[in-house]
Amino acid sequence: MRKKIVAGNWKMNGTQEEGQKLTSEIVNMVKDERISDVTVVLNPPFVHASNVKKLIGGVDNIFLGGQNCSDKASGAYTGETSASILASFGATYVIIGHSERREYFAESNAQLTEKVKLALENGLTPIFCCGEPLEIREAGTHEEYVKDQLTESLFGLSEADFAKIVIAYEPIWAIGTGKTASSDQAQEMHAAIRTHLASKYGKVADGTSILYGGSCKPDNAPEIFSKPDVDGGLIGGASLKSRDFVDIIKSF
Ligand SMILES: O=C[C@H](O)COP(=O)(O)O
Question: Residue 214 C-alpha to ligand 1 middle, in angstroms?
């Protein structure tokens, strides 16, 4: 049985006060509505880490994650945050290779491998993102494109390390655009991803949670999450509204 995961990626949003309010509301709803069968991950901007960690304190199925980590272990890298710093603040997940990091910060597949390794060494579960831009989708080469991202960044991992990875498939043309992939498009890609992972890691890939991301909302999440290879979501915009985010969590 694969883990069902809904992760909220706040991106660069939220003052201290807003972050605390959002976290408290989510925590209260998850408790009051007795949601216990879904792993919930909150990925705020780094500076919110302590506040968020404190607020989720007593809830077994809500975890703190980072939106990124450095590909270096420590040192003179101004503005960066390492996997070990994140772990020391109580984070247990970290998003790696989000398309915004790949596009705006020119992160390469090789760099992402280093980030994944450092995350694992520090006990963090990487949520490894992959996904194609619109022109690749239109050219019909999206499967190959995504498989290459996975091969180049992850296929050097041992089986034991690979078993700890969560994948997020996010078609770039669906991120923040309001244009979601159809549930059939999501299932097709998730199945292709799983088959590709199995070509290297065999049965271990059956246990890999693959999340969908891209304009996921309360009204489309039930249909997307009903697909056999979709194990949850990586939620951007809708994770900033507590009611919407919790409704998405309840969409399985
Ligand atoms: O990390 C989350 C994704 O980029 C999806 O963002 P979105 O839900 O705002 O489209």
Answer: 5
Of all protein residues, the one whose alpha carbon is nearest to atom 8 of ligand 1 is: 236
Kindly list the domain boundaries of the chain, sorted by start residue.
Answer: 5-249
ipTM: 0.99
The total of other beta-carbon atoms located within 10 Å of residue 203's CB is: 8
Ligand 1: centre distance to CA 76 (Å): 31
Q: Which residue, judged by its Cα, is nearest atom 6 of ligand 1?
A: 236
Phi-psi region of 217 (alpha: psi -120 to 50; beta: other; left: phi over 0): beta
DSSP codes joined into one string, 181-196: PPHHHHHHHHHHHHHH
Q: Are 201 and 159 in contact (CB under 8 A)?
A: yes
Q: Which is the closest atom of ligand 1 to the Cα of 174?
A: 10
Say whether 33 is catalytic: no
DSSP class per residue in 17-28? HHHHHHHHHHHH
pTM of this prediction? 0.97
- Give dist(CA 59, CA 63) in Å, integer: 8
**Closest of 208, 210, 212 to residue 235, by C-alpha:** 212
pLDDT in tens, 130-189: 999 999 999 999 999 999 999 999 999 999 999 999 999 999 999 888 788 899 999 999
- Statement: 5-249 belongs to CATH 3.30.479.10: no
Q: Is 98 a catalytic residue?
A: yes
Reported as a single tens digit per residue, the pLDDT across 179-231 is: 888 999 999 999 999 999 999 999 999 999 999 999 999 999 999 999 999 99
- Measure the CA–CA gap between 42 and 7, rounded to whole angstroms: 6
For ligand 1, atom 7, the nearest C-alpha belongs to 236
